[in-house]
């Protein structure tokens, strides 16, 4: 029995269950309230639950608080762009600020993931969803409430461990990760190099997507941010390959789900399963995790702004490939620059 519990623990069931619950509860409330068109704000607030994995609770409280604040600010920035009908230059400037601030915050507080992918995703989607001026505050409050619920769920293990007492080591996974504070991150040249790589990548990928008239250009941008590593992490070409192949297979799964025209409740189940599966696999195999991440992301996008399903699927594949190729070019350029530096005499 102990071995069975231990094997389940290695699958991060605790984290995956909390993440699924964090997104299902607010989405269910929105369905009952007849405002499923606000799904994006609830979903991005719920992404607070994706932070603080494997951290002791005294440190996790800081991590998830910082993450929640960044997600809510990103949603607010996107809402501001949407309600004011901001022109493309303003949207791009906002994107550059979100990327810069996201990487600086992640590097300062030791967030994992160390990239600004969720902040960028929240900003871009909320900027694209039309929002009337009189609904800005309630939409933002949905994100705040969802983030608060996710915060409570992410910290709930503290009480569960106290109740379990001496048996907590057998029932719950260990918490070995210690996020390191780095107040001087803003002076780190490697951090600014990562920011520069991300800015160049998103401008190039987003510009190409717009020039070619591909719908949902933000997916190309998100793909770049997802593939490029955080400061001092290894530049891996395999991650781009995993993202492209995993996305293509995930789009096939999404098509099987969305094309029959399922009910809203069925879509919420898809989101819950996607969130659960992604959290189980994300630390083990990135490509396999995308079999769940892709249906999750596309279903949230579909609920927020319904479009023709075939168009949604094709745009996702094309723009993910575009962003992946741009990221690969940046990775190769970074490797070439590193090799040239290593050949120079001291």
Automatic annotation (TrEMBL):
GO terms for cellular component: membrane. Keywords: Membrane, Transmembrane, Transmembrane helix. This is FUSC family protein. Residues 204-330 form the Integral membrane bound transporter domain. It is found in: Membrane. It comes from the Bacteria. The chain crosses the membrane at residues 21-41, 61-79, 86-105, 141-160, 202-228, 289-309, 321-338. It is a multi-pass membrane protein. Its main location: membrane.
């Amino acid at each position: 029995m102990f071995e069975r519990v231990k094997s389940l623990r290695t699958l991060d069931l605790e984290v995956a269950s909390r993440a699924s619950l964090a997104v299902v509860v607010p989405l269910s409330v929105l369905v009952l309230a007849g405002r499923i068109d606000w799904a994006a704000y609830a979903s991005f607030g719920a992404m607070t639950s994706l932070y603080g994995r494997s951290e002791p609770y005294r440190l996790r409280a800081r991590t998830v608080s910082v993450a929640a604040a960044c997600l809510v600010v990103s949603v607010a920035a996107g809402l501001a762009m949407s309600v004011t009908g901001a022109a493309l230059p303003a949207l791009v400037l906002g994107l550059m600020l979100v990327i810069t601030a996201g990487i600086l915050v992640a590097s300062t507080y030791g967030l994992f993931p160390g990239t600004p992918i969720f902040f960028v995703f929240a900003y871009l989607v909320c900027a694209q969803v039309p929002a009337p001026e009189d609904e800005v505050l309630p939409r933002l409050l949905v994100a705040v409430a969802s983030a608060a619920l996710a915060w409570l769920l992410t910290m709930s293990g503290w009480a569960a461990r106290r109740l379990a007492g001496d048996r907590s080591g057998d029932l719950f996974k260990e918490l070995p990760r210690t996020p390191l504070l780095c107040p001087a991150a803003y002076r780190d040249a490697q951090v600014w190099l990562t920011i520069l790589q991300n800015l160049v990548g998103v401008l190039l990928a987003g510009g190409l997507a717009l020039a070619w008239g591909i719908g949902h250009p933000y997916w190309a941008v998100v793909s770049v941010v997802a593939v490029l590593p955080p400061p001092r992490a290894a530049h891996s070409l395999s991650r781009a390959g995993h993202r492209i192949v995993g996305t293509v297979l995930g789009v096939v799964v999404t098509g099987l789900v969305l094309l029959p025209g399922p009910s809203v409740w069925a879509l919420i189940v898809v989101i819950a399963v996607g969130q659960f599966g992604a959290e189980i696999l994300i630390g083990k195999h990135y490509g396999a995790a995308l079999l769940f991440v892709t249906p999750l992301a596309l279903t949230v996008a579909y609920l927020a702004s319904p479009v023709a399903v075939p168009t949604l699927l094709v745009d996702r594949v094309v723009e993910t490939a575009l962003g992946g190729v741009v990221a690969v070019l940046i990775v190769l350029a970074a490797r070439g620059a590193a090799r040239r530096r290593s050949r120079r005499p001291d």
